[in-house]
Amino acid sequence: MKTPMKFERLPSAFKDASDKRLPLPEYPRPQMARDSYINLNGLWDYAILPIGEKLTAYQGKILVPFSPESLLSGVERTVTPSDALYYRRTFGLPDGFKKGRVLLHFGAVDYRAEIFVNGYRAFEHRGGYNAFYIDITAFLSDGDNVLTLTVTDPSDDGVGACGKQKIDRGGIFYTPQSGIWQTVWLESVPKNYIKSLRITPNIDAEEVLLEIDAPNCKNAEVTIYDGDKPVASGLFDCGISDNGGDSHGFEVTASAVIKLSDAKLWSPEQPFLYDARIVVDDDTVTTYFGMRKFGIEKDDKGIPRLTLNNRPYFHNGLLDQGYYSDGLYTPPSDAAMRFDIESAKRMGFNTLRKHIKVEPLRWYYHCDRIGMLVWQDMVNGGARGISPLGAIRGFLGLRMKDSYKPEGRCDSDRRAEFYRDTKNTLDALYNVVSIAVWVPFNEGWGQFDAKKVYDFVRSIDKTRAIDHASGWHDQGCGDFKSLHIYFKKIKVPKDVRPIILSEYGGYSLKIDGHIFNKNKIFGYRKFNDPDSLSAAYRALIDEQIVPMIPRGLTAAIYTQLTDVEDEVNGFITYDRKIFKIDPAVLAEINGRVKLKSEN
Predict the structure, then answer these.
(1) Is the link from the previous residue into 25 a cis peptide, with omega within 30 of 0?
(2) pLDDT by residue (tens digit) across 464-499?
(3) What is the distance between the alpha carbons of residues 493 and 44, in angstroms, rounded to a whole number?
């Protein structure tokens, strides 16, 4: 029986997910692809019971990978912190699939998952935003195999990362979601296989460094392609064990430096990608990369600027929450992912700030391919929501001591888990071509030891900029002076670091028939019709953003791409059916930012 929903779950503009046989069938890991692949999405058995109550029967079918709270799951029930969520499905392996080992992959499960194969407890995972896999070879039997999961999710009542999920949802916090929310899949690998891969381009030296974790590898080689044409190749130096050159990186067992003279560079305007084929003994993976360089340099007037490929480059972007009206955290289809990115580009933006969420890997692949810079937030934990003192000081722009108590970080487990989640996110997304900036903390939410966290992130990735405290509670470190300005005129302060406007705008327009909450909406400045919204955005750009560029502004992130539940401050409605302003008009307005930043 479905729990009555207080709000209207709107079907989105994308129908692909209605195929209950196999939603989201695309290969989920484009930067490390093999030819063995079985997608386990589709209808699974499920049950939701109070923790401690014995499971005697499943209650119905759920469409994986959609969480039970979502419309597309077919369930629309909330999993509370006192509930356990159970899953079951069977699977078989086709003849010739098994090459030695069978790996079971989960794109993401929120939050604590116990995985059983044929009744054997195979693994336990904690954390709602990172992929993980299990070698299930020893648990398999001939014929059908039974896969079951037991999932619990404390949401914002626990120690782990919860993002903008909140049990008592409302305003800028959204409906919590639980369980499997990214693709579940199988692949088969030989006994010795490539566990992970790291790619670091160096456009100044005209070379690319490839590092792999492939224990016991004896022979490894790589071929790089421009389309179908091989343009470079080389052998890996096997037998290395230097832990990636730092105390946090994955174990490097083989590396290769490949020269790429006259390389084609990647940019949002020309998002060229090289393909590569890596063969390690009996294992083969295909991948891709882009030759690009992110940096910070002073311009000819001595003002520090963000640079791309050694030239100043203004990041003009949108805040992107990554929520869908029918799938919640889960995009309803691959086309839905592409739509958001392509729409932002049509509107004249070159950057998306992925706000307090980690997306499926295919989302980043589309940013790489389409040409869209990404600022990647880490997912917050700690205190629930925003502390009143932190909010007051944040809005006033006052310095606040970076201590444990104000943001609910007194628990050492909370802090340790944040470090683990951050490392997992950095490792998982290191190869993404389009990611230009890491954002450990947003507006002080769960912020602690920001300087130490900045150093931790820098030790793992030396190639990207880091916004150590986005908007509030600047600790005087990091690569930016980062501002959130909604309620006062935008001005650029003096600072030795580049000045970024990491949030602004938030102009709201309610479109009847396309809203989640008919009784209450949220926005920083409300408008009654598209023409008024368009005129206000034009004035904001012409009168406040453009004049600040010569004075030092080097990036601006407008709130936001789409509506999300109560928030109606997107340029696109929550269901992705209506553009509130013609994209061509937005592109023309944003063209003024590009023109000013280049002159």
Answers:
(1) no
(2) 999 999 998 899 999 999 999 999 999 999 999 999
(3) 55
Report the side by side order of strands in the sheet with 132-135: 38-39, 184-189, 101-106, 132-135
Q: How far apart are the C-alpha atoms of 574 and 569, rounded to whole Å?
A: 10
**Given the DSSP bridges, would you call strands 525-527 and 184-189 parallel, antiparallel or unpaired?**
unpaired
| Cα distance between residue 317 and residue 374, in whole Å | 9
Distance CA 328, CA 432 (A): 24
Q: Please check whether the domain covering 16-189 is classified as CATH 2.60.120.260.
A: yes
How many CB atoms lie under 10 A from the CB of residue 289? 23
3-state DSSP of 160-185: CCCCCECCCCECCEECCCCEECCCEE
Q: What sign for the dihedral angle of Cα 406, 408, 412, 418? A: negative
Instruction: Break the chain into its structural domains and give their ranges.
Output: 16-189, 196-294, 311-597
Q: How confident is the model at residue 593 (pLDDT cuts 50, 70, 90)?
A: very high
Q: Which band of pLDDT confidence, cut at 50, 70 and 90, is reported for residue 2? A: very low
Specify the pLDDT at position 68. 98
Q: Are strands 553-559 and 315-320 parallel, antiparallel or unpaired?
A: parallel
pTM of the model: 0.95
pLDDT of residue 241: 65
Q: Which CATH class is domain 196-294?
A: mainly beta
Phi, psi (5° rounding) for residue 158?
A: -115, -170
Element (H, E) at 594: helix 583-597
340, 323 Cβ separation under 8 angstroms:
no
pLDDT value at position 387?
61
Residue 327's identity, in one-letter code, is G
The sign of the CA dihedral 536, 542, 547, 549 is positive
Rounded Cα distance, 336 and 229, in Å: 32
Could you write out the DSSP letters of every residue in 557-582?
EEE-SB-BTTB--SSB-TTS--BSS-
Q: CA 558, CA 490: separation in Å to the nearest integer?
A: 12
pLDDT at residue number 315? 98
- How far is residue 49's CA from residue 506's CA, in Å, rounded to a whole number? 40
pLDDT digits (tens, 9 = 90+) for 29-59: 999 999 999 999 999 999 999 999 999 999 9
Q: Which residues contact 510 (CB under 8 A, 6 or more apart)?
A: 521, 526, 568
Q: Which tokens sit at 17?
A: 């997910």
Please tell me which of 7-11, 311-315, 385-389 the model is most confident about, judged by mean pLDDT.
Answer: 311-315
How many Cβ atoms from other residues are within 10 Å of residue 55's Cβ? 13
Q: Which CATH architecture has domain 311-597?
A: Alpha-Beta Barrel (3.20)
